[in-house]
Specification:
The complex is a heterodimer of chains A (about 210) and B (about 220). Chain A is of the alpha+beta class and about 210 residues long. Chain A is built from six helices and eleven strands. In chain A, helix 2 runs antiparallel to helix 3 and helix 4 packs antiparallel against helix 5. Chain B is an alpha+beta fold and about 220 residues long. Chain B folds into two domains: about 110 residues, Jelly Rolls (Sandwich); about 80 residues, Tetratricopeptide repeat domain (Serine Threonine Protein Phosphatase 5, Tetratricopeptide repeat), CATH 1.25.40.10. In chain B, helix 2 packs antiparallel against helix 3, helix 3 packs antiparallel against helix 4 and helix 4 packs antiparallel against helix 5. The chains are: A alpha+beta (about 210), B alpha+beta (about 220).
C-alpha cells in the first residue's frame, strides 16, 4: 500500500484481465487498494459481447452488495429482473435488491461500465469472487500452481473449491482435484451441473471417482 | 427510500443543485436512488473555472474518496499538488486529512465522487442535508429546506453542524425559541470553528440579542 496521500491513474491504464474474445476487466479497487467500497470497470472488446454476466448478489460468492452501474463509454443493454434498459453513455442503473438478476451486453466495441458496490449496513469487505478471481489470471497464463496457491488461501466455499479442483486438474494433481470437486458438489449441488461441461475437468473424467455421470 | 428493486437514470436527468456561495453544481446520485451502501455524487460545471470539487478534507467523515472525471477536463489540487485531469482520470485519496479541490477547465466538466469509511457501515453524510436545504432556501423555499434539515436531525440528533444549520433556518423563519435551543446544543457539542462562525453569521442576527444566545 502506498504512503502517498493520493494516487492518480487513467482508467485505460488500470491493469486488465484481457482474455481473447472476452471483455476486459479493469481492477480499479485493487489497483488503488481501496478498502471502503467496491469499484471495477468492464470494457467490451467487441460489439454484442456480454459485459456484465448475469448474476445476483446473494448466490455463491457474491457480496450481498447494492450495485450502481454507470455507462461511461458506448452503449449497453441491461436486463434487470427480466426488464430491458437501454443504457447509452451517461446512464446510471442502480440495483438495490441483492436478489435481483442483472446482466448487460455491449452494443458497441469499447463500451465501458463502471460498477460500484457495497453492502448496506455493514463495513465494506472485498467480495469473495473478487478475491478468488486473482487466481483466474493464472489460469489464463497457464500458471496453475500459482492459481492453486491463491485459492488454497481463501475460505473453502463451494465456488473456491470448484475452481481449486479445476486448477489441480489442469496441473495434473488428480487426487486433490477429485477430492475438492466432490466437496464442492456436497456444499452446493449446482456445481454438479458445472462439472458436466467444464473442460478444465476433462483430465479427470475417465477416473471412476469422478462424481458426475455422463 | 425507493421501494423499487432497481432504477435507471441518465446523469443529465438528475437535477443539478447549485450549492450556496459556490459555483459547484451537485448531482445527488446517492439520494436520487436511495443508495445506502456507499456515498456517490457527481458535480457538473456550467462554465470553465467553476468548482467541481469544493475545497475540503474528509476529517469529519473519515472517508476514502475516489474521483473519476467523466467528461471534460478538470484541474485537481490535492495536498497542495496540482493534477491535470482530463476525462478518464481517476484520483484516489486514502488519507481523510488531505485537502482537496478541483476546478473545471471546460464547460460541462463532470466529476464522479465516491466515498465511504473503511471498516464501518456506510452512513449518508450530513452535508447532503444542508447542501439541499440551502439550495431550497436560495430558491425561496426556506421552510422546505428546514424540513430536510429536521429529517436529517432525526437521524443524527447530536450532529453539531446539523444543529447549527437548523438554528440558522429557524432564526430566519422567526422560530426563535427553537433556534436558541438548537444553537445552544450546537455550540455545546461543536468545535471552535462552529463557535467562530456563530459570532459573525448573519443568519443568527434575529436571535443574537437574546440573553440566552450562547456565543
Amino acid at each position: 500500500m502506498s504512503e502517498r496521500p493520493f494516487e492518480v491513474a487513467r482508467l485505460d491504464e488500470v491493469e486488465t484481465d484481457a482474455q481473447p474474445g472476452r471483455h476486459s476487466w479493469r481492477r480499479v479497487r485493487s489497483h488503488f487498494g481501496i478498502d471502503a467500497f467496491g469499484i471495477n470497470a468492464w470494457t467490451a472488446t467487441e460489439a454484442g459481447q456480454g459485459l456484465i454476466e448475469e448474476h445476483d448478489e446473494v448466490t455463491g460468492s457474491a457480496g450481498g452488495h447494492e450495485e450502481l452501474y454507470l455507462v461511461t463509454e458506448g452503449r449497453a443493454r441491461f436486463t434487470v429482473d427480466g426488464e430491458e434498459i437501454d443504457a447509452p453513455a451517461g446512464t446510471l442503473v442502480f440495483v438495490g435488491d441483492p436478489a435481483s438478476k442483472r446482466a448487460a451486453v455491449a452494443e458497441s466495441e469499447g463500451t465501458t461500465v463502471l460498477v460500484l458496490g457495497g453492502k448496506a449496513g455493514e463495513p465494506f469487505a472485498v467480495s469473495e469472487w473478487e478475491e478468488s478471481s486473482v487466481a483466474l489470471r493464472f489460469f489464463a497464463t497457464g500458471e496453475y500452481e500459482r492459481a492453486i496457491d491463491v485459492l488454497q488461501a481463501r475460505p473453502q466455499t463451494a465456488g473456491v473449491l470448484f475452481n481449486l479442483a479445476c486448477a489441480e486438474s489442469l496441473a495434473g494433481r488428480t487426487d486433490a482435484a477429485l477430492e475438492h470437486l466432490t466437496r464442492a458438489i456436497e456444499l452446493d449441488e449446482r456445481f454438479r451441473e458445472y462439472a458436466r461441461t467444464d473442460s478444465d475437468l476433462d483430465p479427470l473424467r475417465a477416473d471412476p471417482r469422478f462424481p458426475v455421470g455422463p | 427510500m425507493s421501494e423499487r428493486r432497481f432504477a435507471a437514470a441518465r446523469l443529465d436527468e438528475i437535477e443539478a443543485i447549485p450549492v450556496t456561495e459556490m459555483t459547484l453544481r451537485w448531482l445527488p446520485i446517492r439520494r436520487h436512488f436511495g443508495i445506502r451502501a456507499f456515498g456517490v455524487n457527481a458535480y457538473v460545471a456550467k462554465e470553465a473555472g467553476d468548482d467541481v470539487v469544493e475545497e475540503h478534507t474528509e476529517r469529519t467523515n473519515g472517508h476514502q474518496e475516489l474521483y473519476t472525471v467523466l467528461k471534460g477536463h478538470a484541474r485537481f489540487t490535492v495536498a497542495g499538488e496540482e493534477i491535470d485531469a482530463p476525462s478518464g482520470t481517476l484520483i484516489f485519496i486514502r488519507d481523510p486529512g488531505v485537502q482537496r479541490a478541483a476546478k473545471a477547465l471546460e464547460p460541462g466538466t463532470t466529476v464522479l465522487a465516491l466515498g465511504a469509511k473503511p471498516g464501518e457501515a456506510y452512513e449518508p453524510s450530513a452535508w447532503e442535508d444542508w447542501f439541499l436545504a440551502y439550495a431550497y432556501a436560495d430558491a425561496g423555499e426556506r421552510e422546505r429546506g428546514l424540513e430536510v434539515l429536521r429529517a436529517g436531525l432525526e437521524q443524527r440528533p447530536d450532529h453539531p453542524s446539523l444543529l447549527y444549520h437548523v438554528a440558522c433556518f429557524e432564526s430566519l423563519l422567526g422560530q426563535k425559541e427553537e433556534a436558541l435551543e438548537h444553537i445552544r446544543r450546537a455550540l455545546e457539542l461543536g468545535d471552535d470553528v462552529l463557535r467562530e462562525n456563530a459570532r459573525t453569521d448573519e443568519d443568527l442576527d434575529p436571535i443574537r440579542d437574546d440573553p440566552r444566545f450562547p456565543a
